[in-house]
Each structure stands twice: as C-alpha cells, then as structure tokens.
Amino acid sequence: QQQVKQSPQSLIVQKGGISIINCAYENTAFDYFPWYQQFPGKGPALLIAIRPDVSEKKEGRFTISFNKSAKQFSLHIMDSQPGDSATYFCAASYAGGTSYGKLTFGQGTILTVHP
Amino acid sequence: GAGVSQSPSNKVTEKGKDVELRCDPISGHTALYWYRQSLGQGLEFLIYFQGNSAPDKSGLPSDRFSAERTGGSVSTLTIQRTQQEDSAVYLCASSPEGGRKLFFGSGTQLSVL
Fold it and tell me: Nearest by CB to A32, which of B42, B100, B103?
C-alpha cells in the first residue's frame, strides 16, 4: 500500500518534444506529490510538487497533472532540451506521517533528450 | 555552507567491518533525513531527525544500522558488520521544518567487498 509505481523506466525524446512520465499510488492518505530530478553523481533536487486539491500545476516548461480519483499523477516536460537529460523520480508523502520529507519514491525514469 | 555536505564521497570496506558516514546539513535547517539509493530498491527512506524530537527510525533495515545527530546539526550514519547487500549510495538531505523541500547532498557511495 505504500508503493508508488512509475513508468516508463526509460524515455528517449527529440529536442523540442514533450516528455511524459507517469506515476500511480495506492495509499489514499498521501497528500503531497513532489517530483525530483537527479543528474549523475548528484543528489536529487526538487523540481515541482503538487497537493491533491488541484488538478494541475505548471512551472515554466514543467507541468504536473493530478487525477485524484484514479490515484495517478504525471510530469510533462514541454519543449524538452538536452539539458533535461536526467533521472526523474516521482514521490509521495502525507501529513499524518512525521514529515512531508518522509517520501516514498517511484523507481525512476531515465530521460534522454537527443539534440 | 552552500549545500548539504557528505563525507566520504566513496567508501570501500570489507564485509564485517563497521563504517561511519557523515552529513553536514544546510545551516538553519531543522530537519535531517537519510536515504539509501540502490539499483534494486531505488530510493528508500532510512531515518529522520527533527529538532530535539525522537528520530523516526522506521526505515532502518536492520539493527546493524544506527544514526545520531549531534547538537541539532551534523549527523553520522553507522553501519555495523557490513554486508554486501549494504552496498549503495547513502544520501543525506536537510530541510526547513515541514519537509516539503529536501536539499540532498551528493551522497556516499559505499562498496562492501
């Protein structure tokens, strides 16, 4: 029940294209859904996050879409750039836990953007 | 400091030895977390410290793992009697209270031979 399932495992897109990564969760207590970006040799960095009271959040080229009834959320990267090539992790946590930082992560998606 | 600092960046040890991994969080951050990243298990929560409260140890995989945080700042993760399955990248993160944004260090790559 604590799992967060992420797909695809890897994704290749052309420069300028749209990258879409999907996640699904089971625990309905989750109420905070961040996405983290990780470059090789570095720790993950927060990219964007959403609460379940909104269906969409946009920051620049990055958009989270959230479907509470389906228990799914996705990351869309518009106008993908080679510099976006990284591993992306979705995650979830809940206020009933000790901290929003106690995250359950998806397995990660390796994104490659070809120039 | 500019960010979360972890040392050493790489550690190679022999099976059965004890290891200590260090984390210096961002000054002023009250919350500190340890995560483990491995190919098979992905990113896993290990332990969380918040101020002077008792730590949340619910993610520690066995009693060979322990952590402490001294003076509300530096933290040390200790793994006793290391096993090959302990090989992973150990990541430390700090956060202002609430934990909505974690700032991760670059991690310690632990290899148990």
Answer: B100
- Would strands A10-14 and B65-69 be described as parallel, antiparallel, or unpaired? unpaired
User: Which residue in A has a C-alpha nearest to residue B101's C-alpha?
Assistant: A46
> Residue B19: which of B11, B10, B28, B31 has the closest Cα?
B11
Beta-carbon pairs below 8 A across chains A and B = 68
Is the pLDDT at A33 greater than 90? The verdict is yes
Name the closest residue on chain B to residue A98, using Cα atoms: B56
**In chain A, what is the straight-line distance between the N-terminal and C-terminal CA atoms, in Å?**
40
Interval A21-45 mean pLDDT: 95
At A90-112, the pLDDT tens digits run 999 987 666 889 999 999 999 99
Please give, one letter per residue, the 3-state secondary structure of B51-75: CCCCCECCCCCCCCEEEEECCCCCE
